[in-house]
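FAQ

Q: What does a record look like?
A: Structure on top, sequence underneath. For example:
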């Protein structure tokens, strides 16, 4: 199991996630609670099952592939309360953006020090966009 960097309030899931395809074929009825989403797969297919899932692992094969951000935001805004993990080519510079989109745990290919991740998350006090964390953007604070 890769090193897990967690900001999830609950128990980190140690179960290996199955693919979205496997979950939809058999896992729904077999009580599987950990699913992996690959880039390009439709995270909306999980929306009817969110209350049964403890882990949704969104893979990032390359730091330049940002499709997983959209999946995370969709799942977070739909009310997913479990562990939402970014795995793969997860870089320290992206941690804050991942957190803002709803990710609460990370399984990076290369280990990231928790203190460095904490510092990256806290580096900027203001935000510019509205995303899943519901932080008020600075333009709205300025103009109401």
């Amino acid at each position: 199991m890769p090193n897990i960097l967690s900001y999830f309030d609950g128990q980190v899931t140690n179960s290996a996630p199955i693919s979205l395809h496997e979950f939809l074929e058999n896992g729904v009825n077999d009580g599987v609670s950990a699913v992996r989403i690959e880039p390009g797969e439709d995270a909306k297919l999980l929306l009817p099952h969110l209350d049964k899932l403890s882990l949704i692992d969104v893979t990032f094969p390359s730091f330049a592939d940002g499709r997983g951000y959209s999946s995370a935001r969709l799942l977070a805004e739909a009310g997913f309360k479990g562990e939402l993990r970014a795995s793969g080519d997860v870089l320290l510079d992206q941690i804050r953006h991942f957190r803002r989109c709803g990710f609460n745990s990370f399984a990076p290919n290369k280990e990231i020090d928790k203190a460095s991740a904490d510092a990256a998350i806290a580096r900027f006090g203001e935000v510019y966009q509205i995303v899943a964390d519901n932080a008020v953007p600075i333009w709205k604070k300025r103009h109401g």
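Q: Is there anything notable about this one?
A: The chain is about 30% helix and 15% strand.
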